[in-house]
Recover the amino acids of this structure.
């Protein structure tokens, strides 16, 4: 029981985490390198800011999505929450509500959707796929109903300021994303709550026997996930200056992809923020780079699939070589 | 005796369907008392333990802690009341490290914040208290079954509970670790912790426990002080009748041809195998005994096809290979391998007994890929009676069986194929004394029919009772070879396993 | 099929073009037809982007088009969620054409959906009336794309309103029909076909049993993909008889023209010359880059609702290729002054 | 039920399966009853045939999907295979190839996609979500590339016959579905191959140690799944008389929903054809009934979500009461 018995074993864990992050980081560097060599514009400040400002929305959703994924589930309903939040935000601010109260209401609405997800999963014991697919239908339909299928432009001129350039010329939503990424990372890695999420995802029975309030933990991650999706919906609406019942309807698969690319598994118990951020950036750089280098649209779809497989395949090989 | 018992169980009853699993169980436990729950497989011991620990709810009856009635709906409630529980089927988080598993649910934290180093420190403290040397920073998935058991014990210690329930903690432990555990239990009980120990190893029960409660068919048939009871009386209570003699059958030295021959088997990754030579002859039962990390497990797993990186010469019933690439290859070569961990490696818990029985040898019950239902039922029913599974029927889901009965299903399904070589890894893990005897009888019967058997066990007594020859493994080498071992050879075996020549 | 790289230095003009959704044929032909006309040989380099029908992709594309600093850009916006991208475009100062859906920072180039609906309804309505179809025996089936907004759906709403007028149904104002309207009085049903083949097929297959078997049916939708999906469902249900069904197409695409030519049920086609939208949009982009200010708020695209007789006049070989595109009018005459449209030489009266 | 008293051991397993099927069947009856009371046309022969003929496509995909789900994975790429098969079938028959040879080529192409999925999952160890999402991108993009994004009407007039009314006035594809449902059911329930699929899904490590070729079994289910999806694509194209690169792009979530509604779990090892068929019929009746009673599309979306949750929730409650 001396130090020495602990030291050597330490080696095992750290490289395991960072090896995957390294592969992902390397992959991002390769993607960036390829596009930079193809187009001088790719690494221009303006374009990098573009990548970041576009990635912020899917990034926020992914920061939410990482929580249910670690806990062993996932949340398809974010694709309904994002447009619902945008529409709601537009309706509320247009009705004269201030930006902050409107934001609070929208986040609360997101929280309610998450709570419903949580209850369906923990109380009604409906599996996360069906539960969140069901709420996706309901919430997505609601977004269209309350907007009557129409686009709702903002009448409050201050809305655009939410996503305008801020500190160092970087858009506010990017800072928001960075800040929340740090917060979520700290929560996951350095709080008892975060460790409980990993425990629940790693083995729910073990967590239950260890006295963890499994149902509360599970419900809470869906609440947080939906709230982050609602926030992403507000950001997207303020980028578009319009509340739209169809804006953001692909965010569920995109965010799940980013999080899994970042090392999470559908079986739960693994994953984290650094990998997720890398996953978001890889997908963002890829889609921007292909548009910038004028890859025809259908080939973009094909290339995205191939790159996704390559990225995940590589980190698997790296893992097996250990 | 203490006037208010720390735990009293009053008329606890539990039914699954029409099956009465526990029938009005009543007993109490004083602070510092060490009690054993004994009973056949399926008698209801684990169910009772789970009820006390709040992970299963009784249909009837109540529990009081410190004389106050409690109603646990989740394990959390029981933990809060001071009850700590290690279930029979270990439940842990494979992806998390040992340290994280030890502090699972209650990581050391200040204002809700914690850190990996704080968890390591806390885990080291409790591992030290328990006296275990654990690789704290290794993921749980990467350590051996025995080590996982130790982690679970350390985890239970962190709760600083006043009632500690251990469901067959020693089933997979070798003697040294068992001894450490009992020493730990002694210290805890001295400090006032009440201990409930469930075990099929009667010697340890009689050596360490103050009182004994015997369950039979869900009813409490005996509560007494250990001092007032003999092991054979306890067995009679468990079985409901006297047990027939367990005397060792005398067998002749074998000069039959080798069925399994291993030459120069090497594995460089830890745990290493260092030039292992081994022969098992037709009709011979060879035991393999070694301490944790010695390579005994690894050798068995290699023969099961789980370590393709172990290279040497392996000859099975004539065919020679230089390695076994996967379990399928080893199976096809004629080795039936009973894995150590029935839950993760052995059984499809959500499937029925029948399906589990026939899974490894579907060909026997099918024609042209078509399952012959009637033949399958007959084969399964036959095995069911042969290994004496106690269940409602061959159609019961394996996950609903008691631990020992699951083990019988596992052993049974590997017997189906009549493979020339049988490698058994902890074959009687968690089975009761009667059933262990039955399994031993079956194995001896198979040996008489010519099957060559290699039995890896952490139970030295089993090794000595069952085997015609006992090989001792230390640091990846076979260091001793004891023919026709008797109880007298136990000390020699233990010394050799510990590296003392 | 990507455009060549934009390069303004050699005197050619660069235009970036963000299409609505290239996996949908309706929009795809805008791209392929313009590619086929080889704009580069007429001094314009067109670079293509695909909004993929997704507002955030559109946002990303607009950002990138601005990074490329073209001489002008064409945006086929996704829905009307365009205020955000308008702000970016306005800030960039790059001249911009909004195609089919308006964006405030851009000059709007569009067809008149309401007029298409009205004119189609008049043609079909008259034929139906001659056959003795009236409120007692006729159901009008209109197919919207609910999520696309009123701009697109105006065509079908106006269609119903006018056809009701002609056949003497209960009068319904176009704006009385919304995205959530399904039953319109006793003679109308609106379904949501999402502008695409399969969803229209499924929607109509679902509701077909609610239309009594002896009813005559008039079918009109927001585009021909949708109409074809609906038609397949009607035929499947045995409701495709030539004496019981009248169709007005919208799009002027290959299937629409072929059907107008060969299918007795298909009696009108709203030809919006959609294949040539790219040509007009690029011409307008060139005009804007040259500093021209369009005279009207909406610069009209050519459109014409054809009956069977008119088909041969405009599409003699039955393909979408036109002998001559219809002449320009006062509101879009400035397009004819651009070098691009002159070089194309396929618009009546423009040399 | 007298059977069971003779062979008492049988009692245990059958009711467990059928209890869930009963709930589902009951649910279907309720759905049908509600719509029948709202519209006299709902139970008309013509409409029932409509429901069946529309359900056949998603049914065929679901018969494929049930295999990976039982084996513990799932296949998102069917949404790419369905349109690819339709487009390919249109191009091949238009090029003059006979219907049968064209069908064989299309099924083979589907098989290749499935094999790629299988290899990615078993060899490259990429998890099924990412692997099949990747191939979905690639295959979906391919469908658009080879059709150049256009609809391809069939020039061979015989194509329509594939899905025309056949025996008893029921469309051919319905008979195809019924036949294949029986075949898949038999394979799953009465063959050793089927047993192995359940075992792999129930506990992959135990299956491996029992000498099962886990990789082959896993790969094979993806091959079969893709081939059934390709067949569904051919049926859909022949219903539409058009090969379209976007027809069938929702079949992945729809089929997974039907299979899970039918009692499968994402964790593998359970599920089967009878439940899946009920799931398909419930979804088909629901969507038809709402269209028939003129529910606006946004509300249809909401109602579908609610019904889905109700159906799964109910069978869960029923299961827990046991
Ligand atoms: N996959 C693995 N990765 C890293 N370390 C491992 C792995 N498997 C086993 N070990 C380490 O090897 C050591 C011994 O393993 P194992 O228990 O299999 O040996 P054994 O000789 O069969 O022991 P015993 O018979 O006492 O169970 C342990 O310290 C364990 O941590
Ligand atoms: N979930 C369940 N459903 C149905 N029956 C169950 C369930 N759990 C346990 N049983 C039954 O309860 C009885 C008692 O099981 P229990 O696990 O308590 O036995 P045990 O005394 O611990 O046996 P062992 O020594 O084998 O571990 C067994 O017959 C078992 O089949
Ligand atoms: Mg037990
Ligand atoms: Mg061991």
């Amino acid at each position: 029981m001396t130090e020495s018995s602990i030291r050597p074993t330490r080696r095992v864990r750290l490289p395991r985490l960072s090896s995957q992050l390294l592969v992902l980081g390397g992959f991002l560097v390769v993607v960036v390198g390829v596009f930079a060599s193809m187009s001088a514009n790719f690494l221009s400040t303006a374009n990098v800011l573009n990548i970041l400002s576009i990635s912020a929305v899917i990034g926020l959703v992914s920061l939410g999505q990482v929580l249910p994924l670690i806990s062993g589930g996932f949340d398809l309903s974010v694709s309904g929450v994002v447009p619902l939040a945008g529409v709601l935000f537009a309706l509320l601010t247009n009705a004269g509500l201030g930006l902050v109260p409107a934001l609070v209401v929208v986040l609360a609405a997101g929280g309610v959707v998450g709570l419903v997800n949580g209850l369906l999963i923990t109380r009604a014991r409906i599996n996360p796929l069906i539960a969140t697919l069901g709420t996706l239908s309901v919430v997505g339909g609601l977004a269209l109903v309350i907007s009557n299928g129409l686009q709702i432009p903002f009448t409050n001129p201050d809305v655009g300021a939410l996503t305008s350039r801020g500190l160092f010329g970087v858009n506010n939503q990017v800072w928001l994303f960075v800040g929340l990424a740090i917060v979520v990372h700290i929560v996951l890695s350095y709080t008892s709550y975060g460790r409980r999420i990993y425990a629940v995802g790693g083995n729910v029975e073990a967590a239950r026997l260890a006295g963890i309030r499994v149902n509360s933990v599970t419900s809470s991650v869906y609440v947080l996930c939906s709230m982050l999706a609602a926030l992403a919906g507000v950001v997207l609406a303020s980028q578009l200056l319009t509340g739209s019942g169809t804006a953001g309807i692909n965010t569920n698969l995109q965010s799940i992809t980013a999080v899994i690319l970042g090392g999470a598994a559908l079986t739960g118990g693994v994953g984290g923020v650094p990998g997720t951020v890398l996953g978001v950036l890889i997908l963002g750089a890829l889609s921007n780079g292909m548009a910038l280098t004028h890859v025809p649209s259908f080939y973009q779809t094909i290339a995205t699939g191939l790159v996704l497989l390559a990225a995940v395949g590589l980190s698997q090989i790296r893992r097996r070589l250990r | 005796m203490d006037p208010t018992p720390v735990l009293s169980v009053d008329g606890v009853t539990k039914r699954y369907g029409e099956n009465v699993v526990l029938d009005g169980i009543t007993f109490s436990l004083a602070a510092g008392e060490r009690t054993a729950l004994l009973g056949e497989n399926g008698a209801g011991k684990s169910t009772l333990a789970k009820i006390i620990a709040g992970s299963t709810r009784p249909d009837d009856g109540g529990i009081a802690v410190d004389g106050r009635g409690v109603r646990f709906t989740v394990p959390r409630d029981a933990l809060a009341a001071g009850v700590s529980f290690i279930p029979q089927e270990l439940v842990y988080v494979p992806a998390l490290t040992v340290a994280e598993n030890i502090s699972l649910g209650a990581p050391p934290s200040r204002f809700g914040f914690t850190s990996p180093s704080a968890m390591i420190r806390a885990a080291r403290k409790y591992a030290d208290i328990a006296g275990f040397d654990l690789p704290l920073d290794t993921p749980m998935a990467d350590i051996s079954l025995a080590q996982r058991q130790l982690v679970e014990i350390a985890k239970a210690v962190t709760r600083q509970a006043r009632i500690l329930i251990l469901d067959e903690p020693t089933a997979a432990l070798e003697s040294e670790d068992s001894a450490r555990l009992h020493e730990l239990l002694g210290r805890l009980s001295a400090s006032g912790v009440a201990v409930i120990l469930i075990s099929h190893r009667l010697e340890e029960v009689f050596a360490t426990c103050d009182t004994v409660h015997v369950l039979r068919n869900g009813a409490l048939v005996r509560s007494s002080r250990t001092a007032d009871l003999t092991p054979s009386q306890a067995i009679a209570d468990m079985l409901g009748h006297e047990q027939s003699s367990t005397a060792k059958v005398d067998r002749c030295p074998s000069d039959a041809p080798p069925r399994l021959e291993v030459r120069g088997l090497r594995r460089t990754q830890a745990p290493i195998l260092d030039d292992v030579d081994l022969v098992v002859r037709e009709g011979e039962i060879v035991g393999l005994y070694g301490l944790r990390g010695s390579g005994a497990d690894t050798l068995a797993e290699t023969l099961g096809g789980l370590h393709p990186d172990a290279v040497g010469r392996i000859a099975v019933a004539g065919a020679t290979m230089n390695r076994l690439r996967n379990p399928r290859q080893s199976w096809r070569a004629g080795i039936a391998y009973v894995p150590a961990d029935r839950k993760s490696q052995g059984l499809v818990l959500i499937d029925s007994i029948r399906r589990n029985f026939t899974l490894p040898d579907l060909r026997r019950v099918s024609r042209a890929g078509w399952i012959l239902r009637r033949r399958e039922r007959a084969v399964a029913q036959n095995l069911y009676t042969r290994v004496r599974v106690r269940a409602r029927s061959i159609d019961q889901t394996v996950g609903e069986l008691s631990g020992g009965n699951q083990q019988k299903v596992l052993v049974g399904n590997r017997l189906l194929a009549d493979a020339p070589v049988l490698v058994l890894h902890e074959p009687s893990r968690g089975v009761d004394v009667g059933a262990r005897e039955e399994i031993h009888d079956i194995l001896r019967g198979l040996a008489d029919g010519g099957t060559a058997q290699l039995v890896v066990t952490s139970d030295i007594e089993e090794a000595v009772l069952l085997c015609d020859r006992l090989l001792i493994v230390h640091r990846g080498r076979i260091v001793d070879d004891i023919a026709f071992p008797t109880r007298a050879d136990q000390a020699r075996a233990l010394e050799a396993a510990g590296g003392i020549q | 099929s990507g455009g060549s790289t934009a390069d303004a230095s050699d005197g050619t003009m660069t235009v970036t073009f963000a299409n609505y959704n290239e996996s949908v044929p309706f929009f795809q032909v805008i791209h392929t037809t313009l590619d086929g006309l080889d704009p580069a040989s007429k001094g314009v380099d067109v670079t293509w982007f695909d909004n993929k029908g997704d507002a955030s992709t559109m946002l990303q594309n607009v950002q990138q088009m601005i990074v490329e600093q073209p001489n002008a850009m064409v945006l086929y916006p996704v829905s009307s969620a365009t205020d955000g991208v308008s702000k970016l475009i306005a800030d960039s100062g790059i001249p911009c054409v909004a195609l089919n859906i308006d964006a405030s920072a851009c000059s709007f180039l569009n067809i008149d959906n309401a007029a298409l609906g009205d004119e189609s309804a008049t043609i079909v309505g008259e034929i139906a009336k001659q056959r003795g179809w009236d409120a007692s025996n006729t159901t009008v089936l209109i197919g919207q794309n609910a999520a696309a907004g009123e701009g697109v759906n105006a065509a079908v709403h106006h269609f119903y309103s006018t056809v009701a007028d002609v056949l003497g149904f209960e009068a319904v104002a176009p704006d009385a029909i919304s995205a959530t309207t399904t039953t319109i009085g006793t003679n109308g049903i609106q379904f949501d076909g999402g502008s695409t083949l399969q969803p229209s097929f499924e929607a109509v297959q679902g509701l077909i049993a609610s239309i009594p078997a002896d009813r005559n049916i008039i079918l009109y939708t927001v585009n021909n993909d949708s109409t074809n999906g609906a038609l397949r469902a009607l035929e499947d249900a045995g409701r495709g008889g030539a004496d019981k069904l009248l169709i007005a197409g919208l799009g002027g695409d290959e299937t629409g023209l072929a059907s107008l030519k060969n299918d007795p049920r298909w009696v009108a086609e709203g030809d919006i010359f959609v294949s040539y939208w790219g040509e007009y949009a690029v011409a307008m982009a060139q005009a804007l880059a040259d500093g021209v200010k369009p005279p009207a708020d909406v610069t009209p695209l050519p459109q014409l609702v054809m009956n069977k007789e008119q088909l041969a006049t405009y599409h003699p070989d039955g393909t979408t290729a036109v002998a001559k595109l219809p002449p320009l009018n006062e509101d879009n005459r400035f397009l004819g002054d651009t070098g691009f449209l002159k070089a194309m030489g396929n618009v009546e009266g423009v040399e």
Notes: The longest strand of chain D covers residues 152-153. The pocket of magnesium ion (ligand 4) is lined by residues B 146, 292, 297, 458 (CB under 6 Å). Chain D has a mean pLDDT of 88. The radius of gyration of chain D is 20 Å.
